[in-house]
Structures are given as structure tokens and as C-alpha cells.
Amino acid sequence: MLLREALAGGDKDFTAMGLRRAVVLLSIPMVMEMAMESLFALVDVFFVSRLGVEAVAVVGLTEGVMMLIYSIAWGLGAGINGGGQKDRGKGQGRGGCGRRARHPYRLGHRSALCLARPVLCARMCSG
User: How many Å apart are CA 39 and CA 49, to the nearest integer?
Assistant: First the structure.
């Protein structure tokens, strides 16, 4: 029942229901996403294993780095969401939330450029 309700989507007022029920409904999609991510890693290792031991090692390292990036993104997202809700609770409305949301977007763009630069330089130098 809860699983079907969590996956059905739609608009729900989580403040009108019990805390435990709301947490379970919100956590089911995240748990399923993590399970699918793990399944993807296993399938990836299965097919890459045909290329050799070094290729499997690279996949293992990549998955570890991906989990670190996910953790940072989730942590920043939770903090940003909390700050936006704080502004909205103060009565600043969307204007306050919009001003606060500019900084994470800038941070995301700058970190993407910093992470992509070495990869782009390596590709240009090797080709």
C-alpha cells in the first residue's frame, strides 16, 4: 500500500499526515534510486570485465567518486532547500528564495568547470 502510494506520485500534503508515514513515503523513491544505481554498477562491471582487470578497477574507482559527488550534491541541496524555506517562512516569498538560489547555481557552474577542465585538456592533448 505505502509502496504503491509512494510510486504513484501526485500532490500530497505531508504536513497533514503523520511524521513516520511522510518520511516513509519520501524515502521509498530514494531507496529505489540507490538500488537501481547499484544494479547499474553491477551490470557495468559485468560488461566491462570482458575488457580486463584494469577496466574493472577503473569502474570501481569511478563508482566511488560518483558516490562522493552524490553525497556533496545531496548535502548542498538539503542546505539550500532549508535556507529557501527559511526565507519563505520569514515572509520574503519567492524573491528571497530566488536571491538565495543564485549562489548554489553559481557554485555548481564553477565546480563543473573546474572538474571538466582537466578532462577537456587531457582529451585535447591526447588527440
Answer: 15
